[in-house]
Design goal:
Layout (H helix, E strand, L loop, with lengths): L5 E2 L12 E3 L1 E4 L2 E4 L27 E3 L9 H12 L6 E8 L5 E5 L11 H12 L5 E9 L4 E5 L3 E4 L15 H10 L6 E4 L16 H4 L9 E3 L17 H13 L6 E3 L6 E9 L3 H10 L3 H15 L7 H14 L23 H12 L5 H9 L24 E8 L2 E9 L5 E9 L3 H17 L4
Parallel strand pairs: 9-11, 10-12, 11-13
Antiparallel strand pairs: 1-8, 2-5, 3-4, 6-7, 6-17, 8-9, 8-14, 15-16, 16-17
Length: 464
Amino acid sequence: MTERRVWRGRSPAWRIGVVLVVVALLVAGLVAAALLTDVEDDLRGGLGGPAAAAPPPSPGLLAADDDAPTPDPAALERILGPLASSPAVGDLTASVVDDATGQTLWERRPHDPRLPASTVKLLTAVAALDRLPPDSRVDTVLARGADPDTLVVIPGGDPTMSGGAEPGPLFPGAATIVQAAGVVRTAGQSPARIVVAPGPYTGSRLAPGWSPVEIAAGNLAPVQAWMLDAGRLDPADEYSPRTTEPTLAAGRALARELGVDPGDVSVSTEPVETTEELGRVSSAPLTERVRSMLEHSDNVLAETTCREVALDRNPDQLADFAAGTSAVTQTLAERGLDMSGVRLDDCSGMSPGNRIPASVLTDVLRTAAGPDASREMRDLLDTLPVAAGSGTLVDRFDGSAAPGAGWVRAKTGTLSGTSALAGTVTSADGRTMSFALLASGTDPAVARPIIDRIAAELRSCGCR
């Protein structure tokens, strides 16, 4: 069994017993807001205009007024019903719930399982934040082999190590290949060769239904227990093409840094004998990995994160796709969420065999947006893309959906014939709602404007 160690931090014990409401931002004439647990200086992918034209935005959280009126379900149906019947959204299932009470405000066959695409990542994120401390880090161990001239790398499941001298922009706090080489030099080893041990992953490197063409497209990399910059060829580009051999590429990068011939790097399929640990380096903290996973819809991070949950649940068992998906559903079920109708072939949403009902997505979202949510869970809201402001929503919510800009925070999901959006929104009256919209059978480019419009109506409608 290879050695594995996950650093653990202390979790805050306090709870935020409030409903969330957002503070409006004025950026280049557009009112925008963000559900953030901490004040930030900027919105990623900001909303235009020179920096000097407006003061830096300062989004934050306030306690909602307990007397904020709840939208009337009948009024919502009058407004949203015609949009839901549009041919553009094909077969739409939907769920909208009041965050404070859990009351269903509007729905369309919410218990019917549908292809969720990347909204699966919401389940992965909540399971990870529920099971693991927010500052958890995954270690990569550097050890001396039985042959003193051999450096052995024992992966723990870190995809965030930087291939440069500084952490990559997507993974603040991650170790670098330069730091890893420094551990070896400090220990006084000058290796002639490098062997990468198998690490804690097993099974296929591609999930059911994954196409290898998505590697060059930047959507995924073969899932292995050690990668640099989540397999990206360009670490500064969140949508960069990825490598087909992430672990071998990482080993060769370390070899170049240590002056070892990259041709003398091998990846072993069997455990490798070692004589002493030289040291270890660590991944970015869990909160940063979850942030990047959701904001940029990073499939690699989703798959490694759910394996981290699986290994925490069963430290003596290697993790594969099935172990990761089972860990997610079991963790959520133990939290009291009904997993009926959920089928997962992966933890990222790339597999066409995945199925999730819209009601499950809103239940999962309420673990972060409800009045009894923990600080760790509420951090999830900080990681969701902001409508017209950041991540995968940066170029959406214009035109008739513009009222939702800045007020909707949601995870997107797109596959052929499928467009999904699941997140949270605060109404004009100060009531927060969780929603999930799953459209299938039409081109996502056609469905998206209507889906965005539905979410925007939740923001602008008093609906009483």
